[in-house]
Amino acid sequence: MAIVGARIDNRLLHGIVATSWAPDSNATRVMVVDDGVANDPQKKQAMKLGRPSGMAVSIITKQKALDNFKNHKYDRQKVFIVSQTPDVFLNLIEQGEKISELILGGTLTFDDAIKVTNRAYIKSEQVDTYKEIIAKGCKIISKYVPQDDSVDVAEVLGNKKAGA
For 30-61, how does the pLDDT look when each residue is reduced to its tens digit (9 = 90+)? Predict the structure, then answer.
């Protein structure tokens, strides 16, 4: 099993993920990890319509994702994971999964948040999670589309305070 892509994106599976990020990663499966969508049949069905051509799609809860990886369900697949929050990726890394790079894509704007790019913000209460991911050897960059220049999130977190 190989996690070939990991992305934080508030819209989860949408056009840019389906047409650029997932195909560029050579994934065979796109995995949306989001409790709210996974537990809402209408949202889940609507999101499945955005399935990238030729790829399987899983829309599952965080616990189901952790269990499936722990049980080696995806050992023979190349998985691109998208979630709205960084804790999913930290939990996977702590469980022993290899994620070499995490892409911070589009997020919502928040009060008292760190602005990484014009489209990406980190909530103050998530800063420690991002720092833990980085400390475990995963590089975090911010890019909205693959053609954008990379912004090193470690540098941003080292140089800015919340609300900056």
Answer: 999 999 999 999 999 999 988 888 899 999 99
φ, ψ of residue 65 to 5 degrees: the values are: -65, -45
Biggest CA-to-CA distance, the chain? 43
Are residues 6 and 101 in contact, defined by beta-carbon separation less than 8 angstroms?
yes
Distances (CA, A) of 8 to 42, 72, 82, 142: 22, 23, 6, 9
Global pTM reads 0.92
Burial code (b: 16+ CB inside 10 Å, e: under 16) for 3-41 equals bbbbbbbbbbbeebbbeebbbebebbbbbbbbbebbeee
pLDDT of res. 160 = 54
Distance, CA of 139 to CA of 141 (rounded, Å): 7
Which H or E run includes 45? helix 41-48
Of 26, 29, 84, 25, the C-alpha closest to 51 is: 29
- Say how far residue 105 (Cα) sits from the centre of its chain: 8
